[in-house]
User: What shape does this take?
Amino acid sequence: MYIETGRMVIRDFTMADLNDMHDIFGDDETMQNCEPAYTIEKTADFLQKFCIEKRGAVAAVHKDTNKVIGYILFKEYDEEVYEIGWIYNKDYWKQGYAFESCKAVMDYAFNSMNIHKIFAEAIDGIKSVGLMKKLGMKLEGIQRSQTKDNFGNWADLYLYGILAEDRQ
Assistant: This one.
């Protein structure tokens, strides 16, 4: 995948992205609603096995700096149904980068890949749910106390989705 937006390039990952990925996955605050922060070894293993070999995610690269500032999960869940998710470097939060790049991936998926549905899930009912709504996704359900957060507390899991026909 290769997509350009006004400020971003969305492309496949390479091992040269390791340090930028670890800036994201190795940070406790960034990973608060995902899982505990990664070691550099775990980041390298995840980058190689999931992002590169399985092609389970794409890199969101800032055009001006050529730095990977975001990880976008984008993988086929079922025939013509894809899961999307995102984790961004906290230095770039609240600047519209996640919306810009995730919208570009979704537009590409619906317009060029002719997929049927994209869905996302999150335990963060504020920032992540806000982005899902901004991306045009609709609430499909809330699984109450479905999973535990990084502090061992039970958390709700918010499920959102968008169909190709919703975009017309």
